[in-house]
Amino acid sequence: MCVVTGMAVPLTSAAPPTDVSADARGVRLIQGSRDERLSTLRSSGGSADPTRLTGQRAEVFRSETDSTGDVVWPQGDLRSVAINTGFNGRFLFEAFVQQFESPLSPNWRVGNTFIAWDVDLNLDSVPDLSAVLFNFNGILYADLVDQAGNLICEGTPISAEALRYYAVSFLSGCFGNVTDVGFVATFAYDNVSAANMSLDFAPELDGGWLGPIPNDYYIPPVIPPPPPGFDGYAPMSPARLLESRFGLSTIDGQFNRVGVRPGGVVTELQVAGRGGVPVDATAVVLNVTVTEAQGAGYLTVFPCGTGVPAASNLNFSVGATVPNAVVAKIGAGGRVCFFANQPVHLIVDVNGYHAPTSGY
Fold first, then answer.
1. Could you give the C-alpha distances from 212 to 125, 129, 146, 150, in angstroms and in order?
2. What is the H or E stretch that residue 23 is in?
3. pTM of the full predicted structure?
């Protein structure tokens, strides 16, 4: 899906070497939510007054037009940002600016200048990955990192002075087999001679996420027909549907690296239509694992749209890893819900499903 005007953009930088770790480049230092980045900027004496960030929103499925003159430095002032999920087998993240400055300049090379496109793979308004354009030791990099700063993929950095344009591109497989994505962009510009930074956002602060944007490379799961004599229950090869830990993955990239599940909070997991589970399935057989529990407690599995039941499906102690098989009815929106009374990492695999004919 092309979400910009379609002009050709030259690739002006070679791919980065692979012998430099993401942590060594300092990517971890520029991670965090937009609020965290804004807090860091304010503490350093920079300027990004949220009351001035009132950009005009363009069509949500295409690009985001940003207001100009809302930050101190025109070199760090976004005009628009966009995503293209059909760019020759790649995801292309783009940023057009008010005044172009070479990404090899001192403000990029010595300062803390970078552009980050935070990517939401689950459409839950929580960043899962960040595509980052930055300069390290005079070399321009495009890195895709998770929210712990781990390097997921190396991409291609792009810049075009005539277009006042920066971009990064990555192979579509770096994002998993997701159906849709959302994103927000941050441009942190550090003027080293003036010792002052600006921070521009698109969409603007409190403007939500741009998306959902369909992934042109999504491959729907192939669900085989029921075998002869099918009684309504179908076993499956295990497929991971939820993985809260960083550095690991689900079958389709959704509900992936979502972080520790807070205690006392319900986690909703889309089950129907994923990992080979038909959209009309009525129940699923899950292998549910709690690990790195921060306190002794319990976890309950139940159909979304109903109240949290009093009975637990598994109990755990501090730091324990406890798996259990659970047959769970599918609730509202094709989702199954999970409730733990203590913060835990949660892993969910599906091993089979019940069709409507099973009577489950």
1. 11, 15, 20, 25
2. helix 22-25
3. 0.61
